[in-house]
């Protein structure tokens, strides 16, 4: 096995008296597509917030490529090569689509807090912006303000911002939430394409997406991981069926 | 009023004067603090519920004082005590209904700008109607007599009247918040902003009422505070920062916090004004004199009384930077 | 910026024309008072543009921007005095640069305290700092000169290639020179990586942190840059007026630049320029006609906040798509109708305010008030009744005619969906 890209060790988060994450340990191999599933309120988004530095954990550690990133700020974690998307679209609404992507590219291409060069004239940045726009299929919409995009377009841009910086570990929080079937299948293709060679961790509700896309799956129930394994293993797991899958199958 | 501390340290005979000053300043400070609370309570409730820092709150206080002056001149003090706060309350409710609610969709910065514009207009209107210098708003003659003596100084009855009224308002406010249905909604909105609208109550109407009540209380504070302090166009600017200090120190949306912070700031302000000591005096007592010119000499010769007007801003700044949730708040500003 | 003004080509022509106009203006308007006014407007434009680096570009609402203008201005006065005493070997021409550096220094100092936060908290901190500095300026007399301020003589320094700044015309060209440089630099800033990130942080400070940027650092750097250009404006003011007083750094001065920029339109680079010119002209002309002009300014500001939050520039931008589509003429009849009603309403309000003002402050001048082209007898109840009727009728007509304007817009929008947003 290759070296793990992301390791969570006994991660915990309490809000007041309520324990939302109760000792999550997980190791994600480099290049793996890992899905986290679980019922509503299981703490999937909270887990992402802990990993990406939005909330500090109450206990435990997170390490990225063997380096401890626990309690680092979101931008410090991002600079180490971890990017994420959000469940509710979290864009720069008054910037154009191309500007949204450009901003996401700037830091990682080394321009940082530069105020002595024209942003439009940075060849490396512009090339990357074009690539990403082409990948997420928003080339035609490049000059439209992000705030007025359609929902599906916003979701695509959300993914585009997450991958634009070239981070090798990408966290996607319910990328297909609220999409129609056809939109979902297009989104899966997009995710598959843009995360080639990267480590992907995604939270997902849609079981067909998960079984289609993920190499391995972890099931999070009430802040604890009750099972981790391949799609077949998860489908076969008694514990998972009892806690989770049973309800989904009756849904369908 | 002002006494230098240096001679006090040597002269035991002045101890009585010191005690007297201490007692009077404490009483004055408490009255000032209670008056501040009348203003801060409305401000903190609006802030806590709606997230709006009403920059026009101090201007409404000023308008209250001027209306109080105008009405007492023609109709008498008692009508002023009722009519001026009523006018401001209605005005405040209308401002919320037709102004704030409109800009709410554009976010807090727009709301802030709106209240800033209103404050600006009240300021200019007051100067336009009543002039750039103050008006002679005097204590009503019925209350203009010494009530009792503190040591040898007679203490004015009007100040005690203000204190009693402020205490009555304080208890009235707490009763309204803990006993009425609207009070219940307000308390829920303070702890869980954003959740209350899901309860199905008419939250916009509650906002309007709270804003109106806050404006009315500010007006009342102006009517009764005007005769004690100078009623002039600069009163709003001077009080504004003190109010924000109180609200921030007390903590967002916390009424007990506002009460404590009001008293604290009231006392600090009152005492700072009567302490006439500069760094230079301290140096002299410590036994060395420094000869310097320029800015450093300015700093050394500045007395505590002179920096009293700066103190609230300093407190506000320190509080915002060091502990933005205040003493009793649960949320950051 | 989000400006959709014109293609880059036309944009450049407009800018070049504006600069040429600024250079030729003293030739076109050859009066001395006009020159003084133009100097004031030039300084105000630089100051307003610097404020918009905060408000429009970075989304920070400051109530204390005059602090950086004022502190730099005072420093500039002291610098010019040192130059006059031959203790500082720099030409007076370069003083604005050093004033800018002073501004940037204080921007760093106070920015560290305030840029950790944004929104309301930032606004409050800026207010606290502004009041603190304003109050301190009255205490530290040796630097700020107390109530009367400090003065200098700009022509005391050695002449620099024949430029001794003795004439107002030379000062004007100095202001235009620094002003154009500053405006270009501030426009360029909006196009740099940091400038773009400032806009991103304005839009969504949280997400900016997840693409590698510390929102706080972006705000701080923007704050320093803004304070730098405010400092240049302060240095120009010091040279122009040869005096600085505590009012230059007061919260009133901060409030006035905020009002200017907002009315002009904070969302567009040229908005503050419009605001600075317009408000300065209003100030220069109206303050002679009516002492209540600040009240009108406040009214204009509140109306802008309520009904045109994108300011004048926003209104201009709104009309460009119909203009391009050749459909602007469809708006003219409803505008004339509704605008006429609005004028009646405004005339009523102005009449009431002026009459009120007259009886309260100018009572000693007798009951007659010169209003518009008439003499109004404020002692007559009929005059008041008339003013009230005009106001109410104007309001009613405006309320009735406004939907016609709204319909005309809806009509245009439905013809060209998307384009007219």
Question: Short description, anyone?
Answer:
Chain B is mainly α and 333 residues long. Chain B has 14 helices and two strands, in the order H-H-H-H-H-E-E-H-H-H-H-H-H-H-H-H.
Q: What do these coordinates show?
A:
The complex is a heterotrimer of chains A (252), B (333) and C (421). Chain A has helices at 44-52, 74-79, 97-106, 123-136, 151-164, 181-194, 207-213, 231-236, 238-251; strands at 4-15, 18-29, 33-37, 59-64, 67-68, 82-84, 169-173, 199-203, 216-221, 224-229. Chain A is an alpha/beta fold and 252 residues long. With 333 residues, chain B is mainly α. In chain B, strands 1-2 form a two-stranded antiparallel sheet. In chain B, 44% of the residues are buried. In chain C, the strands form two sheets. In chain C, strands 1-2 form a two-stranded antiparallel sheet. In chain C, strands 3-4 form a two-stranded antiparallel sheet. The longest helix of chain C is centred in the last third of the chain and has 35 residues, at 381-415. The model of chain C is unreliable at 1-6 (pLDDT under 50). The interface between B and C is large, with 48 and 46 residues.
From the 3D structure, determine the CATH topology of the largest domain in chain C. ABC transporter involved in vitamin B12 uptake, BtuC
Please give the radius of gyration of chain C in angstroms.
24 Å
Which CATH class of the largest domain in chain C? Mainly Alpha
Poorly predicted residue ranges of chain A: 248-252
CATH architecture of chain A: 3-Layer(aba) Sandwich
Question: Taking all residues together, what is the mean pLDDT of chain A?
Answer: 90
Major β-sheet strand ordering of chain A: 6-7-8-3-9-10
Number of helices of chain C: 16
Write the CATH architecture name of the largest domain in chain C.
Answer: Orthogonal Bundle
Based on DSSP secondary structure assignment, what is the total number of beta strands of chain A?
10
Which value, in Å, is the CA radius of gyration of chain A? 18 Å
How many distinct domains of chain A?
Answer: 1
Q: Helicity of chain A, in percent? A: 25-40%
What oligomeric state is this?
heterotrimer
CATH topology of chain A: Rossmann fold
Distance between the termini of chain C: 16 Å
DSSP strand (E) fraction of chain C? under 5%
Per-chain topology:
The complex is a heterotrimer of chains A (252), B (333) and C (421).
Chain A (H helix, E strand, L loop, with lengths): L3 E12 L2 E12 L3 E5 L6 H9 L6 E6 L2 E2 L5 H6 L2 E3 L12 H10 L16 H14 L14 H14 L4 E5 L7 H14 L4 E5 L3 H7 L2 E6 L2 E6 L1 H6 L1 H14 L1
Helix pairs in contact in A: 3-4, 3-5, 4-5, 5-6
Chain B lengths: L4 H6 L4 H36 L6 H18 L2 H27 L4 H23 L15 E5 L2 E4 H23 L1 H11 L11 H23 L9 H16 L4 H20 L4 H8 L8 H7 L2 H4 L3 H12 L11
Antiparallel strand pairs in B: 1-2
Helix pairs in contact in B: 2-6, 2-7, 2-8, 2-9, 2-10, 3-4, 3-5, 3-8, 3-9, 4-8, 6-7, 9-10, 9-14
Chain C lengths: L7 H21 L3 H27 L7 H19 L10 H20 L4 H21 L1 H4 L5 E2 L16 H23 L2 H11 L1 H5 L5 H27 L1 E2 L6 H14 L6 H19 L3 H15 L3 H14 L7 H30 L6 E4 L2 E4 L3 H35 L6
């Amino acid at each position: 096995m290759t070296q793990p890209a992301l390791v969570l060790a006994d991660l915990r988060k309490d809000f007041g008296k309520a324990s939302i994450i109760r000792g999550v340990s997980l190791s994600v191999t480099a290049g793996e597509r890992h899905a986290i599933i679980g019922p509503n309120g299981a703490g999937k988004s909270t887990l992402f917030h802990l990993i990406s530095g939005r909330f500090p954990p109450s206990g435990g550690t997170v390490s990225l490529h063997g380096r401890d990133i626990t309690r680092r700020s979101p931008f410090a974690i991002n600079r180490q090569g971890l990017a994420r998307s959000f469940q509710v679209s979290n864009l720069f609404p008054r910037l154009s689509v191309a500007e949204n992507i450009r901003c996401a590219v700037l830091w990682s291409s080394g321009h940082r807090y530069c105020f002595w060069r024209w942003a439009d004239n940075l060849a490396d940045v512009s090339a990357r912006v074009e690539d990403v726009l082409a990948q997420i299929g928003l080339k035609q919409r490049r000059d439209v303000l992000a705030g007025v995009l359609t929902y599906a377009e916003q979701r695509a841009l959300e993914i585009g911002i997450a991958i634009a910086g070239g981070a090798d570990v990408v966290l996607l929080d319910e990328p297909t939430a609220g999409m129609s079937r056809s939109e979902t299948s297009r989104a899966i293709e997009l995710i598959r394409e843009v995360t080639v060679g990267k480590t992907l961790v995604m939270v997902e509700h849609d079981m067909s997406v998960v079984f289609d896309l993920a190499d391995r799956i972890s099931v999070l129930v009430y802040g604890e991981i009750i099972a981790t394994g391949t799609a077949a293993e998860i489908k076969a797991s008694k514990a998972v069926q009892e806690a989770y899958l049973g309800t989904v199958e009756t849904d369908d | 009023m002002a006494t230098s501390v240096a001679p006090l340290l040597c002269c035991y005979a002045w101890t009585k004067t010191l005690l007297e000053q201490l007692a009077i300043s404490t009483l004055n400070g408490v009255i000032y603090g209670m008056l501040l609370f009348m203003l801060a309570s409305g401000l903190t409730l609006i802030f806590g519920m709606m997230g709006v820092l009403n920059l026009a709150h101090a201007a409404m206080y000023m308008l209250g004082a001027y209306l109080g002056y105008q009405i007492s001149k023609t109709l008498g003090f008692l009508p002023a005590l009722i009519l001026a706060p009523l006018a401001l309350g209605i005005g405040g409710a209308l401002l919320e209904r037709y102004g704030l609610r409109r800009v709410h969709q554009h976010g807090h910065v727009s709301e802030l700008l709106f209240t800033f514009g209103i404050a600006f207009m009240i300021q200019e209107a007051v100067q336009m109607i009543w002039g750039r210098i103050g008006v002679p708003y005097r204590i009503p003659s019925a209350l203009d007599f010494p009530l009792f003596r503190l040591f040898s100084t007679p203490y004015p009855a009007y100040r005690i009247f203000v204190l009693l009224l402020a205490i009555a308002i304080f208890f009235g406010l707490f009763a309204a918040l803990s006993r009425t249905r609207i009070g219940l909604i307000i308390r829920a909105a303070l702890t869980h902003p954003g959740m209350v609208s899901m309860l199905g109550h008419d939250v916009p109407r509650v906002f309007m009422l709270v804003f109106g009540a806050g404006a009315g209380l500010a007006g009342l504070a102006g009517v009764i505070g005007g005769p004690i302090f100078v009623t002039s166009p600069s009163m709003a600017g001077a009080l504004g920062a003190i109010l924000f200090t109180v609200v921030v120190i007390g903590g967002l949306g916390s009424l007990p916090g506002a009460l404590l912070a009001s008293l604290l700031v009231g006392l600090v302000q009152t005492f700072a004004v009567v302490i006439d000591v500069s760094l230079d005096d301290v140096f002299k007592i410590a036994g060395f004199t420094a000869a310097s010119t320029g800015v450093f000499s300015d700093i050394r010769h500045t007395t505590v009384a002179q920096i009293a007007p700066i103190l609230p801003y300093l407190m506000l700044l320190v509080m915002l930077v060091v502990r933005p949730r205040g003493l009793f708040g649960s949320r950051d500003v | 910026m989000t400006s959709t003004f014109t293609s880059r080509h036309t944009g450049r022509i407009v800018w070049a024309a504006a600069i040429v106009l600024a250079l030729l203006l003293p030739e076109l308007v050859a009066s001395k008072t006009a020159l003084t006014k133009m100097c004031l407007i030039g300084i105000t434009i630089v100051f307003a543009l610097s404020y918009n680096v905060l408000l429009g570009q970075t989304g920070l609402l400051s109530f204390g921007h005059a602090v950086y203008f004022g502190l730099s201005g005072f420093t500039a006065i002291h610098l010019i005095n040192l130059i006059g005493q031959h203790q500082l070997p720099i030409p007076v021409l370069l003083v604005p640069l050093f004033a800018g550096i002073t501004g940037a220094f204080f921007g760093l100092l106070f920015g560290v305290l305030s840029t950790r936060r944004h929104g309301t908290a930032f606004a409050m901190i800026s207010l606290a700092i502004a009041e603190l500095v304003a109050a301190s300026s009255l205490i530290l007399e040796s630097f700020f000169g107390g109530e009367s301020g400090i003065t200098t003589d700009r022509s005391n320094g050695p002449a620099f290639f024949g430029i001794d700044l003795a004439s107002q015309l030379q000062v004007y060209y100095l202001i235009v020179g620094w002003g154009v440089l500053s405006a270009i630099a501030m426009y360029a800033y909006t196009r740099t990586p940091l400038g773009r990130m400032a806009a991103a942080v304005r839009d969504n400070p949280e997400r900016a942190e997840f693409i590698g940027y510390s929102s706080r650092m972006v705000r701080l750097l923007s704050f320093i840059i803004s304070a730098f250009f405010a400092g240049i404006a302060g240095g120009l003011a010091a040279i122009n007026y040869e005096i600085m007083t505590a009012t230059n750094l007061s919260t009133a001065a901060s409030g006035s630049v905020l009002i200017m920029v907002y009315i002009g339109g904070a969302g567009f680079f040229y908005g503050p320029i419009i605001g600075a010119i317009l408000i300065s002209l209003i100030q220069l002309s109206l303050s002679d006609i009516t002492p209540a002009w600040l009240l009108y300014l406040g009214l204009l500001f509140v109306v802008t906040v309520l009904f045109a939050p994108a300011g004048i520039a926003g209104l201009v931008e709104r009309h460009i798509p119909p203009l391009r589509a050749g459909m602007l003429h469809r708006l003219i009849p409803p505008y004339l109708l509704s605008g006429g009603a609005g004028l009646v309403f405004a005339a009523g309000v102005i009449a009431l305010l002026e009459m009120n003002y007259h009886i309260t402050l100018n009572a000693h001048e007798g009951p007659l008030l010169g209003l518009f082209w008439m003499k109004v007898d404020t002692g007559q109840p009929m005059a008041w009744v008339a003013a009230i009727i005009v106001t109410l009728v104007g309001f009613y007509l405006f309320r009735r005619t406004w939907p016609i304007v709204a319909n005309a817009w809806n009509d245009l929008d439905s013809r060209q969906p998307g384009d007219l947003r």
